[in-house]
Amino acid sequence: MNRKHVLIIDGMALLFRSFFATSFTGQFMRNQAGVPTNAIYGFLKHLTLANKQFSPDTILCCWDLGGKTFRHEIFPQYKANRDEPPLELLPQFQLIKHIVQALGIENISHPGYEADDCIGTLSTRLSQDHKINILTGDQDLLQLINQNTYVTLLKKGYGNYQVYNLDLLELEWGITPKQLIDLKALMGDSADNYPGVKGIGKKTAGRLLKDYSSIERIIENIEELPRGVQTKIKNDLEMLHLSRKLATIFCHVPLVFDSSLAPWEPKYDVISRSFRDLGCSHLTSLVR
């Protein structure tokens, strides 16, 4: 089999990051129809720079669809603390998908699942035979790292990355990808609004995983733990298991996508025409 290098884009992470990087100025870089395009501009810049730096054979882009997911069904408070997206960002959600399609890149999503789950499913399906590079700003995706899957975290500015493989994750975090799930289950995630075990922070959670390797082993040996830690875990055992489910990226979404992984070969005449039709001719130069 022809082993390919597949770049999977976390579309939501790139779009949000690009919006907030420039929105504070109040300059939203509108297109001919008056629709803000500042997030789209940053997205395209990140995309083209990553393509030049990593030279993938093909690119896929994953999105949230909005609305409730299976995580809301098992924990209604999931992400309930998040504000609504800014008004200037809302019209850019649909416009960027049209632009990505015009670039010849497949948009991938599925009702009831998050972009993370779609990314996890793609990487699980493809990493046995191909090299996978996930471009994101979301550390949650580090749990997907394996021998053939890398996670590239965006850093400040354009073209600045930290590429994580198994060795670097172990060096910097002191844990394996699977242990990252247990770490979040123990300490919770304020951004996603689930508590984990109350009173257990990152330091204690990390020490527990270093000593016992997994939640199962921690529970098996709970009588060995300091009395206060024992009490906290016993009191929140149900939430610990629930938080673990919430933290785990689901890697079996029934996705339909072009599994041929045809090489990405931008057709600039088509791109130019499509961008013009979308009122975004001012962005065409970013992808040349």
From TrEMBL:
Any one Gene Ontology BP term: DNA replication, Okazaki fragment processing
GO molecular function, one term: 5'-flap endonuclease activity
The keyword Mitochondrion appears for this protein: no
CDD domains in the cross-refs: H3TH_53EXO, PIN_53EXO
Classification via InterPro entries: 5-3_exonucl_a-hlix_arch_N, 5-3_exonuclease, 5-3_exonuclease_C_sf, DNA_polI_H3TH, FEN, HhH2, PIN-like_dom_sf
UniProt entry tagged with the keyword DNA-binding: yes
Domain 5'-3' exonuclease residues, every copy: 4-265
Keyword terms of this UniProt record: DNA-binding, Exonuclease, Hydrolase, Nuclease
Protein task: 5'-3' exonuclease acting preferentially on double-stranded DNA.
Protein name: 5'-3' exonuclease
